[in-house]
Amino acid sequence: MERYKKSHGFFADPAVRIGKWIAFLCALVIFTPWLLFGSEILVVEVKDAISPPVASYLIENIDDALAGNMAAVIIRLDTPGGLDTAMRDIIQHEMNANIPVIVYVSPKGARAASAGAIIALAADVAAMAPGTNIGAAHPVSIGATQEKEGESETMKEKVTNDAVAYARSIAKERGRNEQWAEDAVRKSISTPANEALEIGVVDIFAESMDDLLAQLDGRVIKKGATTFELQTKDAHLVENPMGLRYRLLAAISNPNVAYILMLIGLAGIYFEFSSPGAILPGVIGGISLILAFFALQTLPVNFAGVALILLAVIFFIAEIKVPSFGLLTVGGVISMILGSLLLFRTPELYAQVSLMVILPITLVFTAFFVACIYLVVKAHRTLPASGAQGLKGEKALVLLWDAPGRGKVFCHGEYWNARGPASIIPGDSVEVVGLDGMELVIRPVAERDDTKDGVQ
């Protein structure tokens, strides 16, 4: 037995034996999920325009998947396009990360347009679901407007050629159809999923996520000096949807939201300056303006549009101060509509403010300032209710009256000395026409009525 214990170290020492059992149990805990489910694959989803918040979300998740030793990252993509800078950040990380990145244009009815098409081309594996399309990647200039038509055309040609070279280089690196990549940029062609598979734009045509995993299983991917063989048949999918932080940042980057935040900010700041110490309008206005500035830095802003909106607010405020008989209000409405339409300088629909947002906002602002104008005019026309001016036009009852034209009257709940025509007698109803010191100047109501009718 001693010889057996010496030849089998597992039983040699109780402390060693306990340590080996602990190591065995730890290994069992670590590898049991892998044995049961296979490798882990991170699944992220983009259903929005490609913007800096979306780029940060994808880059962060690719890094997390790499740090967590996951087998791959699957990006479910449905996008109308987005900003060139955000697209290039995603593609650089996508191509240089030491982990396979699969882009799956899904679900049915989704699209990978514009920037989304180039992101799909750059994937290690590009897949599409039925009823989806890819392409229309022609660049849209959102820079400053050129003064000369020739300069503008030259700039457009430079931008287009740069985008074509970029798309072709990515397609060549991934072994995909280079001519299609050029046509998608230069001619804005868009291709449905089944045709994209036939002409070598994508690698897989998958009905569902399960179908995609089945077709990925056993596929060999080479990235640099590293070769990956995907084992996806029994893979465990780890869903990581966009969190509150990124959803909030992406929502703020929406042109409609940025537009509304800017107007709320301008209105709040104006009310705070008009009524210092109100605090709440200033707080709301300040927060809204800061959020609007964040959004505007990620969008193709036309500063002429911003200037027109500011001019509209000035017109509305001036209408309250200057009697323009409504001309400033009309100018403000026209300026706000034009400024809203010109605010974002791009023909891409995802980066424009919707008319269904512009019209209600303009109507609300117009109605608000018209109501302010009405209240100001009403306040100016309202007769004073106190002091000497407040007594004019009041009715009074004559109590005592002497022949010289003086006596006492009861007016406004008070007894007053009064003077007026000698024909007045006690019991008459009279009207106050003025105040001389502490004495009311009165006249008979009948005289007032005769005068009103043109009879003296």
Could you describe the 3D structure shown?
Helix 3 (52-67) runs parallel beside helix 4, helix 3 (52-67) packs antiparallel against helix 10 and helix 14 runs antiparallel to helix 15 (355-381). A hairpin with a 2-residue loop joins strand 13 (406-411) and strand 14. The longest helix has 27 residues, at 355-381. The chain has 4 domains: 1-32, no CATH class; 38-245, 2-enoyl-CoA Hydratase, Chain A, domain 1 (Alpha-Beta Complex); 254-381, no CATH class; 387-452, Beta Barrel (OB fold (Dihydrolipoamide Acetyltransferase, E2P)), CATH 2.40.50. By secondary structure, the chain is an alpha/beta fold. The protein contains 17 helices and 16 strands. The strands form 4 sheets. Strands 8-5-3-2-1-11 form a 6-stranded parallel β-sheet, with helices on both faces. It has a 5-stranded mixed barrel with strand order 12-13-14-16-15. The chain has a 3-stranded mixed β-sheet with strand order 4-6-7.
Protein topology:
Blueprint: H1 2-7, H2 14-37, E1 40-46, H3 52-67, E2 72-77, H4 84-96, E3 101-105, E4 111-113, H5 115-121, E5 125-128, E6 133-135, H6 149-173, H7 178-186, E7 190-192, H8 193-198, E8 204-205, H9 209-216, E9 220-223, E10 226-229, E11 236-239, H10 244-252, H11 255-274, H12 280-296, H13 303-321, H14 327-342, H15 355-381, H16 387-391, E12 395-401, E13 406-411, E14 414-419, E15 429-436, E16 439-444, H17 445-452
Parallel strand pairs: 1-2, 1-11, 2-3, 3-5, 4-6, 5-8, 14-16
Antiparallel strand pairs: 6-7, 9-10, 12-13, 12-15, 13-14, 15-16
Helix pairs in contact: 3-4, 3-10, 4-5, 6-7, 11-12, 13-14, 13-15, 14-15
